[in-house]
Specification:
Strand content: under 5%
Number of strands: 0
Radius of gyration: 26 Å
Distance between the termini: 77 Å
Shape: globular
Order of helices and strands: HHHHHHHHHHHHHHH
Length: 399
């Protein structure tokens, strides 16, 4: 009797080995792309200028405080997102746990930055909240609702940035200074970022039309062979929309939503400010001055994030680096040979810092979990020893 073809494919050892090799391959590609982008930027800047590392060092020495401001903006981002979690936690569980809110924010960003398309954050946040003793309902609602509100806030800022730029509010139009392909990538990325909030709103007002639209999109994806299981994909999209809408409705009191939305906007502005401090640290300047200069560079930072929304690598590595360099060297005046260093500073505080802090947090959680497990075993052993001693004492003859 012939052996079924899938018998070999279901071998758990081979499946685990293939999964491990796939992870190694993905991370190898990720590292090569990121390293290639960094070395290309450094080589292009330093080879085409008379500046060297000593000149850059002197500039850093005179503008060192901007690095502290960038670190403060990074911390502000985490704080504002944690405050959004705290507002929701107060409603869902009737209490606030600041440490859990900070940890779930850091761990969410950590997993977002190490998974393609930033898809790993919410599942791990749900698991972490359950481990902290939060009931399953609030543990699911909290991360998904916070993510949905954050997406709406980012979309609001992106559209505002596009309008302000088109109206030449700051005396210049970035679209006229950058390459057409890069601006087209910004528009495409913004359209993709619009899909999620638009589907949620459409689902709320017309479920039937939304279902037909999603079925049409899935059929198009099947026609171009972008999915092998269209029915499963349709069910996954619909269940995801229903879950996100349920989570938003769970906290849908006007005052509460306004506070969450304001905290989300403040978080995105803080992260976009990292670009401003990175540019200023290396002597860069825009056509505007003061608060207008900050606002203009924040707009450019939002454009960078939108321009790489469709890049599948973790954190849009490689593409984000080059998009920042091309956009800011075209729209901002930088000292010769410092564009790559400004890019590296921005990338460190907006991407690599989350991985470093998240890894430390994750390692601390694992160590604490193992310590509690060892203490639990030690307690069980002590109880067993005491029980044995009591039995021995009872069996001893009375003298």
């Amino acid at each position: 009797m012939p052996v079924p073809a899938e018998g070999v494919l279901t071998d758990p050892k081979k499946a685990a080995k293939r999964k491990k090799l796939r992870k190694i391959l993905i991370w190898s590609i990720f590292i090569l792309i990121a390293a290639g982008a960094i070395f290309y930027a450094l080589y292009s800047d330093l080879s085409n200028s008379e500046a060297d590392f000593k000149d850059v060092g002197k500039m850093v020495g005179s503008n060192w405080y901007f690095f502290l401001y960038a670190l403060a903006a990074f911390c502000g981002y985490i704080l504002f997102r944690a405050m959004t979690h705290a507002v929701m936690m107060r409603f869902l569980t009737k209490k606030i746990r600041p440490g859990v809110c900070l940890s779930v924010t850091v761990l969410g960003r950590y997993y977002d930055n190490i998974t393609p398309f930033a898809t790993g954050g919410q599942p791990f946040q749900i698991q972490y909240l359950k481990q902290k003793g939060i009931d399953e309902g609030p543990a699911i609602t909290l991360p998904l609702a916070e993510y949905s509100i954050s997406r709406f806030a980012f979309l609001f800022l992106s559209i505002t940035a596009l309008i302000l730029n088109a109206a030449n509010v700051f005396g210049t139009n970035a679209a006229a200074d950058i390459h057409g392909a890069l601006f087209a990538a910004i528009i495409v990325g913004m359209a993709l970022n619009l899909c999620f909030p638009a589907l949620i709103l459409l689902f709320c007002f017309s479920r039937r039309f939304c279902e037909r639209l999603i079925r049409f999109i899935v059929k198009v994806m099947r026609f171009f062979r972008l999915t092998k299981r269209p029915d499963a994909l349709y069910k996954k999209i619909m269940s995801g929309l229903e879950e996100n809408i349920r989570c938003i409705r769970a906290i849908a009191k006007r005052k509460r939503l306004i506070w969450c939305f304001l905290f989300a906007i403040a978080a995105h502005l803080a992260m976009s400010s990292v670009a401003y401090f990175s540019i200023k640290a290396f002597g860069g300047s825009a056509s505007a001055t003061g608060l207008e200069e900050w606002a203009y560079i924040v707009i450019l930072s939002l454009f960078v994030v939108n321009s790489v929304a469709f890049i599948p690598t973790p954190g849009s590595s490689g593409a984000a680096d080059m998009s920042f360099r091309w956009l800011f060297t075209a729209c901002v005046t930088l000292s010769i040979g410092t564009g790559a260093f400004a890019m590296l500073t921005w990338r460190f505080f907006s991407f690599y810092m989350f991985i470093i802090v998240g890894f430390v947090q994750f390692t601390a959680i694992q160590i604490n979990r193992r310590r509690k497990k060892r203490l639990g075993h030690a307690t069980e052993d002590a109880l067993e020893t005491n029980a044995e001693n009591e039995i021995t004492t009872e069996n001893e003859p009375v003298r």
